[in-house]
Amino acid sequence: MRRRPLAAVPAVVLAVLLPITLAGQSPPCTAPKNSNVARMLGWFASPLAFSQLGPIERMPAGAVRIGGDLTYVPPPPRAITQTDVCYAAKSEHTGLSPVFPRPRLVLGLWEGFSVEGMYLPQVTVAEATPNMGSVALAWAGPPIESMNGIQFTVRAHATLGHVKGPITCPRSDIQQTDPTGTCWASKPSDDTYSPNVSGVEGGAGSSHGRVRWYGGAGYASLMPRFQVGYRAYNGVLDSTRVRVDLTRVTAFAGLAYAVTHNVQLSAQLYSVPEDATTGRVGFLWRLR
């Protein structure tokens, strides 16, 4: 995105859910919930939410599944990339990566409960470098045979961590000729986005057959934080921070296909109606 060398820009609190005022820093700017800045921060939380991958199984204690998914990161509408509060008006560079890869590990507990987790190390994909983890606790009820084997499920999830990249000032915008212009710097900005998403979802799905359907809806708490690491050509560092707290209704639906007894493929649509709708594809492999 473009920025003025001494103008305030969005800034971040790394991997935290509560606002922290650091020594020597001004308090973060709280973006109004209906502002472009708040909508843009909420937009990118949707693809990073740790939704379920395929129907939730009623796994025996000690059962293990490993897998992964690839999530499409849709570009936000141009209108909301035009910042309107907290810092100088400009256009954000938001296309760090068109996809978000994520590994998964699922462990069976007892009485239909399972726990799921993932961690993304600092490996750069396109222009995005994550350092992020997610965890979920799920319960799958026994199949109701009088309803053609439908299972009802409940799942709570949380995602913490951050993604770093040149959002406020990408390499393509760097210039060193106009000190009053945008991106007057010697290198791209090193900005950080923390989605801080948690939520709970209820769902239902089929429990029999090679092809299974599932779907549901839920409620999510979004506490995204953003911080820029932009250093102007004269050495002045801009570290303005922006925060917003949002609540959202979510919905999802998908299909799973059992390639073999141990390998399952899945595809899903995940939607936050107020923000973005995205698609996910993935697989799970039954280890035991």
Notes on the protein architecture:
The structure is a single chain. With 288 residues, the protein is mainly beta. It has a single domain (29-286), classed as Lipocalin. It is built from 1 helix and 16 strands. It has one helix at residues 36-48, and strands at 29-30, 64-72, 99-108, 113-120, 129-140, 150-165, 191-194, 197-206, 211-222, 225-227, 230-231, 237-238, 241-243, 246-258, 263-271, 277-286. The strands form 2 sheets. The chain has a 10-stranded antiparallel beta barrel with strand order 2-3-4-5-6-8-9-14-15-16. The chain is elongated. The N and C termini lie far apart (48 Å).
- State the shape: elongated
How many individual domains?
A: 1
Which CATH first-tier class would you pick? Answer: Mainly Beta
- How many distinct beta strands? 16
Biggest sheet descriptor: 10 strands, antiparallel, barrel
Q: Give the CATH architecture.
A: Beta Barrel
Q: In order across it, which strands form the biggest sheet?
A: 2-3-4-5-6-8-9-14-15-16
CATH domain fold name: Lipocalin
Q: How many helices in DSSP terms?
A: 1
Radius of gyration from CA coordinates: 21 Å
Residues in helix, %: under 10%
Q: What low-confidence regions span 5 or more consecutive residues with pLDDT below 50?
A: 1-24
